[in-house]
């Protein structure tokens, strides 16, 4: 028999962790029958919830303004949840500490992914930073991969880099795939072309990697019940076929926002992929994702852009040259995301406009408070603000 959960709601580091099993991950020696593991579900901060079976928890569809994620999550998703709660979202959670051996190793996760795929390859549409990185990791794990790209030059370079097992410019390369990931720009995900829709094999689960989920879910929910909106929160400022890097998803959140008419088995397959890549899968409602990501991803891009504009706009050539010479690690940290792909930044703002504007308004208010403290020489007040930010930062890292 598999081990049951050791419930301990008194431990604060366990509260908020989703205690259902890792969606198909093996927790027992091969050949041994696996038992259902109970988990305790609580909502709105009530840890005295009801016990359910893992299968029920795994099949749970988030209600509006609710967040749920798997047991193997570290404290990072709990901090992500707390940020949402601070924004006024209600949440549901499953409390419980898995017993020894319940967290799968990478090899176990890869075997589970291959079992769920039934030997079918994973398809990738696009081999930029995200697609190329997924391909490299899957190849290292021995999971077969196929990729469809638009230009022969990209296909040739992808072969040279060994990003996937097979890549070409013909959509037929995807026909045998059991899972297809759309690693495409946001505008192509929000308005998928007829050619893309026709290329998707009828047996495959489809997911994406876009950073805005509401607009994508709205576009796809009437197109394909196998579609699972997804967003791996990992990346860099690099782009194109040269950008893919191994191990980029390890320890990073991979968000899924399945909607009501999604095939109930489809999210499990995408979560198995995320686990195989070392990521931390979690589920939430699309609107919650978009508001949270506006704060921790989209807003920082615009703030970084404003900082770069300010520093580069210095009119005194002597001061400007000295600033260039003195810029070091602090400026590099705070300006990094402002130096990324401009097209991606515009698409983030375009498709998450409401949440981005809310974030900008809150940021402007905070900046005005800091400005007032300096203008009025309110040094104790400024010190309080700095102390608050120093205390807040570890919760996001």
What sort of overall outline do the alpha carbons produce when their principal axes are compared? Answer: elongated
SSE run: EEHEHEHEHEHEEHHEHEEEHEHHHHHH
> How many angstroms does the end-to-end distance come to?
38 Å
**Unreliable residue stretches:** 1-59, 62-104
Bin the helical content: 40-55%
Provide a count of the helices: 15
How many extended strands?
A: 13
Strand arrangement, major sheet: 7-6-5-8-9-10
- Oligomer class: single chain
Cα-atom Rg, whole angstroms? 22 Å
**Main sheet, how many strands, which sense, barrel?**
6 strands, parallel
Average pLDDT rating: 77
What does this structure look like?
The chain is α/β, with parallel strands linked by helices. The strands form 3 sheets. The chain has a 6-stranded parallel sheet, with helices on one face. A 4-stranded mixed sheet has the order 3-13-12-11, with helices on both faces.
């Amino acid at each position: 028999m598999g081990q049951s959960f050791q419930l301990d709601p008194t431990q604060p580091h366990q509260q908020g962790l989703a205690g259902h099993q890792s969606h198909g991950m093996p927790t027992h020696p091969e050949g041994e029958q696996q038992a259902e593991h109970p988990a305790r579900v609580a909502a709105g901060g009530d840890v005295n919830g009801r016990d359910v079976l893992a299968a029920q928890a795994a099949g749970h569809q988030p209600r509006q303004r609710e967040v749920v994620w798997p047991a193997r999550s570290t404290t990072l998703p709990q901090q992500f949840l707390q940020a949402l709660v601070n924004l006024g979202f209600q949440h549901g959670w499953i409390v419980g500490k898995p017993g020894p051996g319940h967290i799968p190793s990478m090899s176990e996760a890869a075997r589970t992914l291959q079992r769920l795929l039934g030997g079918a390859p994973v398809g990738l549409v696009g081999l930029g930073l995200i697609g190329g990185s997924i391909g490299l990791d899957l190849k290292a794990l021995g999971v077969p991969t196929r990729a469809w790209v638009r230009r022969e030059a990209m296909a040739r370079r992808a072969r040279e880099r060994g990003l996937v097992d097979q890549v070409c410019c013909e959509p037929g390369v995807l026909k045998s795939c059991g899972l297809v990931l759309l690693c495409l720009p946001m505008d192509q995900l929000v308005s998928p072309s007829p050619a893309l829709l026709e290329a998707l094999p009828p047996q495959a689960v489809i997911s994406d990697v876009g950073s805005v989920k509401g607009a994508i879910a709205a576009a796809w929910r009437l197109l394909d019940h196998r579609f699972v909106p997804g967003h791996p929160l990992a990346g860099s400022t690099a782009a194109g076929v040269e950008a893919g890097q191994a191990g980029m998803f390890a320890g990073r959140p991979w968000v899924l926002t399945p909607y009501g008419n999604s095939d109930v088995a489809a999210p499990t397959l995408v979560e198995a992929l995320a686990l195989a890549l070392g990521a931390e899968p979690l589920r939430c409602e699309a609107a919650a994702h978009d508001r949270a990501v506006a704060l921790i991803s989209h807003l920082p891009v615009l703030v970084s852009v404003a900082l770069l504009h300010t520093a580069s706009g210095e009119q005194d050539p002597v001061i400007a040259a000295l600033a260039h010479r003195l810029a070091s690690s602090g400026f590099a940290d705070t300006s990094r995301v402002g130096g990324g792909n401009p097209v991606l930044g515009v698409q983030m703002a375009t498709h998450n406009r409401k949440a981005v504007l809310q974030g900008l308004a809150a940021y402007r208010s905070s900046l005005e408070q800091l400005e007032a403290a300096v203008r009025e020489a309110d040094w104790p007040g400024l010190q309080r603000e700095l102390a608050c930010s120093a205390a807040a930062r570890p919760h996001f890292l």
